[in-house]
Amino acid sequence: MDQTFLNWIFAAAGAGAGWILKIVWDAICELKKDLRQIERDLPVVYTRKDDFKEEVRELKEDMKIGFNKIEATLNALFKRLDRTP
Question: pTM value?
Fold first, then answer.
């Protein structure tokens, strides 16, 4: 084989490898940008687990109070119904 032919083969292989590495490098940079954006948006868009648990606990307490009032009202109605002949 001629030396020029080998040089062309190595040049083509180097160009192909360089092109693939450039694509991979661009993808990594894009992923880094996306990760930074997610890190910025995370506290705003999503809630922390302990905050969620606290809100659910408060909601359950409010529901319990509401159901107790409904139960008291229903008990009063049933007592009145039982008293009527």
Answer: 0.50
